[in-house]
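pasting for ref. prot 1 ->
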Amino acid sequence: MNEKTENNQGVRINKYLAQCGICSRREADKMVDAGRVQINGEVVSQMGTKIQPNDLVLVDDKPVDNNQEQIYLLYNKPRGLLCSRKDDKGRPLIYDHLDIPAHVQSVGRLDMDSEGLLLLTSNGEILQTLIAPKNKIPRKYKVKFTGSLSLESIEKLRNGGIDLGKGELSDPWDMSIDSDNGGHSWITVTIKRGRWREIRRTLDAVGHIVRRLIRVRFGPIKLEEGMPIGSWRNLSSKEVAALKRLHQAANPKG
């Protein structure tokens, strides 16, 4: 097959697979490198190969459909569920409670003990935009923890640079104190990266144990008050448009 890398028409294979909701562009490149992608019956060997309107694309010998409607969901995740398709230990998964196609993926993860807003989508490009650290997409959380923050700890949290171990330092927090009854406190925190158990590790480093962690916002999408825990809904057209504008701003040449 003459792979159309010289043709200015068409869509690059990695972008095409991301648009179809198969994976991110980076993951698509890995699929191509592993020989898992075919166009018109021939294995793709070049990352820059472009897809033309009438091409038949296969991934793992299964046809890819670029005409299916993209899916965008908001799930009010309960505690006690993993954001994973499978688990060797047999722990409960979010996908046990969501009636969605296999190509719909969670946008990042909430750990098993965390709850609240979880976005899921079949749009691999928007997913990658939201989770890429360089884009600094804000995530807002309500956090309950043991004890009260000292003035020194508040300053440290807002300034960042707290040692989290393994060479990691905390980022500066945009933080407000919501309540403090001596035994437990609530704060609202906005961070711009989704590192593993970042909020829990940061508060632990200044002597406090997180009791509840609820995500209430991711980028332009908010968890509305009163949405039942464990329920999910489709994003509205305005919410989808906001995600697309964010994606375009982050990828002006894409």
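and prot 2 ->
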Amino acid sequence: MKKVPLESMPGHLLRRCHQIGVAIFLEACAEYDLTPLQFAVLQTLVNDGAQDQVTLGGATAMDRTSIALLVRNLEQRGLLKREKSSRDQRAKIVTITAAGRKLLKTALPAVEAAQKRILAPLDQAEAARLLELLGKLAENNNALSRAPARSLRRSA
């Protein structure tokens, strides 16, 4: 059987980097009891405002079940609230609460430090290039995702 070095497989390296990135984030944000997905949901609500749960799931590339569980957990913690839509009784509008905004404001330095730590092995040009390439991979392979993002935005 042919030997294949795992280090030459992008899927393996992406999985490893994901593990490392999550571990760094969880360590940095442990005192806030905040996960990367919870941060993504809360920050999306700050960035884009209140929105229905399905749209929020699309914006954060989460399937319906995952976003529903995550929103329920954040609601139980008082970090966001859900209300029935006045336009569609089946839809639930998700809004970040004052407590959610306060948590984000307090945790943001730790989140930013985690991002810097993830990129620490790279120089500034390499880090910028990596982010550009990861964005390109995510955007061009989006349709292949189990939960495609429905609003990929690039920051300028």
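The radius of gyration is 17 Å.
DSSP finds six helices and three strands in the chain.
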